[in-house]
Task: inverse folding
């Protein structure tokens, strides 16, 4: 950010919730800008989606790579977003990317370099040029997270530099509700070591990440339980685009695990397809060219949906397909996979697959929530004193389907902008305005669909609430493929559970899991309600009962929900 501390900001205090890329970077910048920072994180500082990021972070640098331009990055982002992105937000994301990449380098992030000493750039699906910076090959998230955490700990322990604020770190501290004074958010209640406590500040920045744990199969670690959306919603903040949940096409299908403990999710990065890997079915047939001209490098929602449709057409809707990375090793020489993708090489081997010689079983898994707490272009939400950045926020950059490697970038660019708003005392509520780019539909050929996945039937007795039951329900009824009947059935079941769990009330339970369960249930209701309201298919929201590309007007329609208007309350 490199801006002189605002004179009136010197002793302002920002409470940052979350230690992924958005929270860590924002905390560092806020302290540099002269604010005192309290940084809360539910588990260890390294427990975040950020730490698991593999492919990298997209950016057109100050000196663009040959053949690449900021305009192309903007175009690719808008196009992957299926016409539902906020074009101004996308322009900001892509134009300002280089500044924040420089910010990461300044904080010590070790990006990989090529033989000429320049940033090595990878290609990922739906990018028209190689523009993905990475670190440690496929350990980008760990590289970013490690460097930012080290910088935060230094800022916490080091002597107070002139003009700088302090960062106080509260790890293993779970925010359970937002404190409000006359409607303004002024702090956070949290659980730490079995006790409920509170911290106050001039504003709160939510950077709590995503919600993959809404679904039975996910790439996300255990922290991703929709806490931020639930906390913000209970405080009266508007949320938007929550019907759009991205499923990553290639999560490794692993065994049941040992002693009933499910194995950690294992994503096989899109960058692997960027290097040439292909998808085949159980018959060895490469099916993606039948579904999209860009085949394996089509936008992520298209690839996931094509896998689901293809499996359904084979009569194995709950089966899996295979990623063939052996072709890369054949084309680029022995040892290439281990060098370019060291983490995946080790993890697949641990799971019993030598991917240099064998196919990797893969299936789509819940990966990224495009929707979230509605913000303007400076992280302001509709509630005064409450800012949001990163995956928890809905800035409009991700549209109906996020372009690969644009998420880490969003956390950076909009995390910084939120801090700038805070430092300039511009953290008052706004009712964010939104525009969509209105591009045409995603172009996926829509085969006549035999909707294979069996949802929970209305005649089935509603099982008692449990996290597992909720995850199964959402996967079956509101996953890659949806329709009105399944969504209605899900809404009914969630309603029955909500009557018991009361997810809208911030509980004073001392069990962290009870808070997470209530948050997941509330988020599930919001997602299903929005999915019901969007009666046409768009991006990652694919309804088998409305598979045609939507009318132009529908593209422009963004469903913003706020507490008062919500059917959840009816
Ligand atoms: P996170 O990194 O998820 O951090 C959220 C933080 O909030 C965590 O510290 C968590 O503990 C904390 N938290 C949550 N709830 C609470 C609470 N109640 N109280 C206190 N703290 C709380 N994106 C890319 O751009 N490129 C990639 O290559 C890429 N690869 C990915 C690979 C995997 C396996 C996964 C899962 C995601 C990947 N993504 C990638 C997506 C990207 O990693 C995330 O969207 C991004 O890291 C989100 O950053 P964040 O700072 O918003 O949240
Ligand atoms: C991946 O490496 O495939 C994940 C990239 C992303 O989610 O942006």
Result:
């Amino acid at each position: 950010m490199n801006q002189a501390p605002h004179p009136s900001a010197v002793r302002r205090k920002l409470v940052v919730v979350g230690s992924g890329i958005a929270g860590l970077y924002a905390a560092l910048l806020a302290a540099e800008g002269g604010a005192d920072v309290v940084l809360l994180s539910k588990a260890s500082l390294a427990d975040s989606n950020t730490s698991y990021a593999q492919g990298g972070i997209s950016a057109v640098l100050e000196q663009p790579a040959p053949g690449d331009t900021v305009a192309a990055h903007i175009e690719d982002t808008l196009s992957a977003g299926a016409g539902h992105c906020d074009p101004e937000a996308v322009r900001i994301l892509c134009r300002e990317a280089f500044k924040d990449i420089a910010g990461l380098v300044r904080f010590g992030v070790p990006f990989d370099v090529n033989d000429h000493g320049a940033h090595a750039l990878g290609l990922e699906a739906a990018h028209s040029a190689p523009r993905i910076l990475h670190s440690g090959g496929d350990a980008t998230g760990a590289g970013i997270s490690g460097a930012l955490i080290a910088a935060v700990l230094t800022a916490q322990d080091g002597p107070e530099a002139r003009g700088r604020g302090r960062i106080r770190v509260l790890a293993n501290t779970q925010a359970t509700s937002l404190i409000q004074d006359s409607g303004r958010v002024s702090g956070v209640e949290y659980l730490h070591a079995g006790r409920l406590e509170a911290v106050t500040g001039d504003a709160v920045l939510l950077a709590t990440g995503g919600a993959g744990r809404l679904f039975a199969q996910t790439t996300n670690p255990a922290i991703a339980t929709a806490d931020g959306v639930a906390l913000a919603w209970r405080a009266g903040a508007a949320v938007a685009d929550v019907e759009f949940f991205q499923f990553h096409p290639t999560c490794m299908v692993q065994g049941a695990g040992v002693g009933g403990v499910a194995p950690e999710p294992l994503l096989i990065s899109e960058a692997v397809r960027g290097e040439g890997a292909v998808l085949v079915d159980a018959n060895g047939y490469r099916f993606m060219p039948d579904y999209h001209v860009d085949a394996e490098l089509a936008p992520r929602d298209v690839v996931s949906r094509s896998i689901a449709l293809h499996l359904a057409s084979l009569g194995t809707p709950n089966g899996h397909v295979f990623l063939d990375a052996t072709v890369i090793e054949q084309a680029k020489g022995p040892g290439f996979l281990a060098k370019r993708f060291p983490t995946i090489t080790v993890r697949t081997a641990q799971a019993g697959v030598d991917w240099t010689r064998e196919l990797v079983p893969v299936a789509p898994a819940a990966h990224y929530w495009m929707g979230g707490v509605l913000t303007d272009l400076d992280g302001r939400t509709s509630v005064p004193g409450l800012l949001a950045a990163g995956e928890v926020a809905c800035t409009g950059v991700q549209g109906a389907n996020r372009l690969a490697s644009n998420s880490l970038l969003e956390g950076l660019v909009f995390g910084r902008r939120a801090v700038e708003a805070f430092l300039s005392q511009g953290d008052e509520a706004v009712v964010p305005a939104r525009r969509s780019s209105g591009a045409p539909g995603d172009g996926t050929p829509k085969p006549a669909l035999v909707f294979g996945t069996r949802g929970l039937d209305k005649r089935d007795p509603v099982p008692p609430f449990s996290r597992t039951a909720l995850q199964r329900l959402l996967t079956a009824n509101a996953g890659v493929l949806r329709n009105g009947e399944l969504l209605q059935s899900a809404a009914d079941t969630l309603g029955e559970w909500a009557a018991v769990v009361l997810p809208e009330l911030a509980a004073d339970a001392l069990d962290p899991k009870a808070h997470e369960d209530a948050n997941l249930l509330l988020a599930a209701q919001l997602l299903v309600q929005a999915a019901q309201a969007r009666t046409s298919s768009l991006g990652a929201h694919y309804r088998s009962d409305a598979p045609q590309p939507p009318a132009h007007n529908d593209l422009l329609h963004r469903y913003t929900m706020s507490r008062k208007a919500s059917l959840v309350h009816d």
The mean pLDDT is 89. DSSP finds 16 helices and 19 strands in the chain. The longest strand covers residues 360-369.
